[in-house]
């Protein structure tokens, strides 16, 4: 079960990958409106994007990326059916991964 | 987790821009190539410190070859779509900065050999400010900025 949605589309020799992750992305600066206490930081720090086990891109994020992050990137050399793997790791050490084939 | 030797190896391979080569040579399994999250850069409160920590320099030449796509007016600062694209050759990293956020550095992207210099994501902005994109290409830094007017800030509580 994974909460990462990936769509990878080939056009000419360029593959466009779009993905959506489910994550609260708390900066650690926000306060709970009822208690006035700070909500602890909880955000994705790193996203690794792989095409056939080769890293295409590594993203490093702060809590400044919006909740339920969207990420899109492009690369060359993909072919229909190739697997795209996206893995994120957050500041609590939690991690999630998903794979989708290029359409 | 913290293994001094591994860190040195990582740093070495990243500076040389040859992570892929390192994998090919069997030096590193893909799992180990995860660059360590750059805490000092992301916690920096000013842009020069963040850039120096992330990209190794803070003097970036302004270039109109960097195209930033972002709304002129963002009604909701919690979700501001930003796309950075460039015609520059040999791009290895792209960084996105919201100049007036408490911690301005939002995201850094390290591009592999096959990646095209294009990234798109959604960011939070505390107030009306410039969205700055810094691109590292051929070892040099280039930047461009776009002003985004924020009606409701997305970082407060």
Question: What order do the helices and strands come in, and which of them pair?
Answer:
The complex is a heterodimer of chains A (about 100) and B (about 160).
Chain A: E1 5-11, E2 14-20, E3 44-51, E4 54-61, E5 70-76, E6 83-90, E7 95-101
Antiparallel strand pairs in A: 1-2, 2-5, 3-4, 3-6, 6-7
Chain B: H1 4-15, H2 19-24, H3 39-43, H4 47-55, E1 61-62, E2 66-69, E3 73-76, E4 80-86, E5 91-98, E6 105-111, E7 115-123, E8 129-137, E9 140-152
Parallel strand pairs in B: 1-9, 3-9
Antiparallel strand pairs in B: 2-4, 4-7, 5-6, 5-8, 8-9
The parts of chain B where pLDDT drops under 50 for at least 5 residues are: 17-34
CATH class wording of chain A: Mainly Beta
Number of domains of chain A: 1
CATH architecture of chain A: Sandwich
Q: Major sheet of chain A: order of its strands? A: 4-3-6-7
Helix share, percent of chain A: under 10%
Task: Name the shape of chain A in a single word.
Answer: elongated
Summarize model confidence as the mean pLDDT of chain A.
Answer: 93
Any overview of this molecule?
The complex is a heterodimer of chains A (103) and B (157). Chain A is mainly beta. Chain A has one domain (5-101): Immunoglobulins (Immunoglobulin-like), CATH 2.60.40. Chain A has strands at residues 5-11, 14-20, 44-51, 54-61, 70-76, 83-90, 95-101. In chain A, the strands form 2 sheets. In chain A, strands 4-3-6-7 form a 4-stranded antiparallel sheet, with no helix packed on it. Chain A has a 3-stranded antiparallel sheet with strand order 1-2-5, with no helix packed on it. In chain A, a hairpin with a 2-residue loop joins strand 3 and strand 4. Chain A is elongated and about 55 Å long. Chain B is an alpha+beta fold and 157 residues long. Chain B folds into 2 domains: 1-36, no CATH class; 38-152, Immunoglobulin-like. Chain B is 20% helix and 40% strand. Chain B has 4 helices and 9 strands, in the order ααααβββββββββ. In chain B, the strands form 2 sheets. In chain B, strands 1, 3, 5, 6, 8 and 9 form a 6-stranded mixed sheet that branches. The model of chain B is unreliable at 17-34 (pLDDT under 50). Chain A binds chain B through residues 14, 27, 29-33, 39, 45-46, 48, 50-51, 53-67, 69-77, 89, 91, and chain B through 19-20, 23, 30, 33-35, 37-38, 42, 54, 78-81, 83, 98, 101-103, 105-112, 114-116, 118-124, 154-157.
């Amino acid at each position: 079960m994974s909460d990462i949605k990936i769509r990878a589309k080939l056009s000419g020799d360029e593959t466009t990958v779009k993905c959506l992750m489910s994550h609260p992305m708390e900066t650690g600066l926000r306060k709970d409106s009822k208690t006035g206490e700070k909500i602890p930081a909880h955000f994705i720090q790193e996203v690794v994007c792989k095409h056939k086990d080769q890293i295409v891109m590594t993203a490093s994020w702060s809590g400044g990326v919006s909740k339920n992050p969207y990420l899109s990137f492009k690369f060359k050399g993909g072919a229909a059916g190739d697997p795209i793997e996206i893995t994120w790791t957050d500041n609590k050490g939690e991690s999630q991964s998903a794979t989708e084939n290029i359409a | 987790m913290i293994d001094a030797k591994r860190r040195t190896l990582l740093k070495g391979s990243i500076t040389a821009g040859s992570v892929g080569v390192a994998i090919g040579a069997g030096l590193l399994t893909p799992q180990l190539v995860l660059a360590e999250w750059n805490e000092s850069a992301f916690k920096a409160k000013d842009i020069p410190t963040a850039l120096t920590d992330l990209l190794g320099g803070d003097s970036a030449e302004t270039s109109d070859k960097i195209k930033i796509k972002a709304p002129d007016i963002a009604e909701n600062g919690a979700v501001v779509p930003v796309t950075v694209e460039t015609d520059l050759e040999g791009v290895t990293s792209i960084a996105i900065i919201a100049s007036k956020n408490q911690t301005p550095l939002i995201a850094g992207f390290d591009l592999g050999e096959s990646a095209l210099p294009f990234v798109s994501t959604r960011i939070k902005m505390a107030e009306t400010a410039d969205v700055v994109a810094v691109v590292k290409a051929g070892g040099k830094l280039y930047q461009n900025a776009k002003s985004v007017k924020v009606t409701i800030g997305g970082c407060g509580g």
